[in-house]
Amino acid sequence: MLDPTDRTIMISGANRGLGNAIARRLHADGFTVSVGARDVDALRAAMDGCDEDRLLCHHYDALEAGTDSAWVDATLERFGRLDGVVNNAGVMDTASLEDLTEESLDEMHAVNVKAPFRLTRLALPHLRSSGTGRVMNIASLSGIRVAGQFAPGYAMSKHAVIALTEATKQAGWADGIRVTAVCPGFIATDMTSVLDEDPSTMIDPDDLAELVSTTISLPNTASVAQLNVACRLEPHL
């Protein structure tokens, strides 16, 4: 396993839900974390209790190009290196194919696909310099299958995240960059609270965060291409 000491990881959408669970777990495991979200005050509150010497809270808006480059620059200025990116920020619309609007589809594409595309490209030179760079793209089981009529627009965006993951892996493999698509089912977070599902049957974000931390810590010789995590029987997976 890689030593987390002095390894700096950026996590988007870290003010709540899975992103916050991942950020806090990585920090607890010894990583230096740079976390980004739109509301920096809420982000600082969400990271309360963490060692300030290994923490940077910075403004980041997935819909606003330019906030990503400012965040990367601030991370490098503060810590002098970048070893990993967790592309977690995302949005979901559960509308059926017939009810889905182009405006909603555009927003999901902008946040779920274009934002991690931009952040990954900005990070690539620094991940190459690391020699053990890591990219974790939070996709979904909806990125590898479509569950009936549930959220086809969201599924389309997450299928694109799987393609981005593969493209990034091929672009960076020779320089030690390893890339994983994390594909969970329902996670007990604010995003899924609008669904008619029992939270006790969903994935605990802390459990998924543990898997992300473990995967990020694996050496270059143990690359996990796709991490499928289900909370119910998925016979076709």
Description:
The chain is of the alpha/beta class and 237 residues long. It is built from 6 helices and 7 strands. A 7-stranded parallel β-sheet has the order 3-2-1-4-5-6-7, sandwiched between helices. The model has no long low-confidence stretch (mean pLDDT 96).
Features:
40% helix; seven-stranded parallel sheet; 237 residues; alpha/beta; 6 helices; single chain
Distance between the termini: 28 Å
Give the helices and strands as they follow along the chain. Answer: EHEHEHEHEHEHE
Detail the poorly predicted runs. Answer: none
User: Shape, please?
Assistant: globular
Amount of helix:
40-55%
Multimeric state of these chains? single chain
What is the radius of gyration? 17 Å
**Helix vs. strand class:** alpha/beta
List the helices and strands and how they pair.
Blueprint: E1 8-12, H1 17-28, E2 32-37, H2 40-46, E3 55-59, H3 67-79, E4 84-87, H4 102-130, E5 134-138, H5 152-172, E6 178-184, H6 205-217, E7 226-229
Parallel strand pairs: 1-2, 1-4, 2-3, 4-5, 5-6, 6-7
Helix pairs in contact: 1-6, 4-5
Question: Can you give me a brief rundown of this structure?
Answer:
By secondary structure, the protein is α/β, with parallel strands linked by helices. The chain has helices at 17-28, 40-46, 67-79, 102-130, 152-172, 205-217, and strands at residues 8-12, 32-37, 55-59, 84-87, 134-138, 178-184, 226-229. Helix 6 (205-217) links the parallel strand 6 and strand 7.
